[in-house]
Amino acid sequence: MTVTIIDAEPTGISVDLDRTAVIIIDMQRDFLEPGGFGESLGNDVSLLMAAVEPCRLLLRGARARGLLVIHTREGHRPDLSDAPRAKVERGAPNLRIGAPGPMGRILIRGEAGHDIVPALYPLPGEPVIDKPGKGAFYATDLHAILHNHAIENLIVCGVTTEVCVHTTVREGNDRGYRCIVPGDCCASYFPEFHETGLRMIKAQGGIFGWVSDSTRIIAALGQQ
Ligand code: C5J
Questions:
Q1: Closest Cα partner for 136 from 161, 94, 170?
Q2: Could you give the CA distance from residue 132 to residue 116 in angstroms, rounded to a whole number?
């Protein structure tokens, strides 16, 4: 047991690092890189790229400390058999899931754009969860993996704050995990959604989690 206090809002939180995992949500080339799917939708991807360096530093600290690190990727089978029609039908036809994009077919497993950005690439042995939905628990074995590692606390990073990070934090909170979100390790194409998303997590005494940042979490990792 290795207990430390992470400075966070609305309160500091005591965690056993041996029961704490870092989850990096959907840091995929198509969402983050210039020339990818996100940019082809007209988004400013530099807003998302801003989360890469804080994530890299936090990952380095977590790996050095021996924490379980898990990565997720949003995407679907090439035949789209796991993609609900209601999801595929949305948006302009040339920008839908499965359509050819600047880095291969959009949100399809195995395509270049579906892969994780080089700076945050998983190390051998780190679980990578391929998720068909926004939440990382939906239709995946994430809960089983966490349970089998006796994990109680999740540090949730990634993109986008108000979509896949938020959904995962809500799912994790309902499953009994303490969820801590380092705000600078998350990002959105919409800065106001990012800010509001973080405020929502920590409102009402931490209605579904805690908000901290990479600096404070890295400090806590080295503290005990
Ligand atoms: C994620 C999305 N990863 N915004 N996906 O947030 O559709």
A1: 170
A2: 16
Q: What is the pLDDT of residues 78-119, one digit of tens each?
A: 999 999 999 999 888 888 999 999 999 999 999 999 999 999
Which of 27, 32, 115, 159 should be mutated for ligand 1, with most atoms under 8 A from CB?
159
Which tokens is 24 given?
Answer: 């990096």
Query: CA 149 to CA 142: how far, in whole Å?
Result: 11
Instruction: Select which of 164, 179, 185, 186 is catalytic.
Output: 164
pLDDT tens profile 158-212? 999 999 999 999 999 999 999 999 999 999 999 999 999 999 999 999 999 999 9
- Residue 80 CB-density burial (10 A; 0-12 exposed, 13-18 middle, 19+ buried): middle
**Residue 223 pLDDT grade (very low, low, confident, very high; cuts 50, 70, 90):** low
Instruction: Specify the ligand 1 atom closest to the Cα of 25.
Output: 3
Tokens 């993996």, residue located? 145
CA–CA separation, 188 and 154 (whole Å)? 20
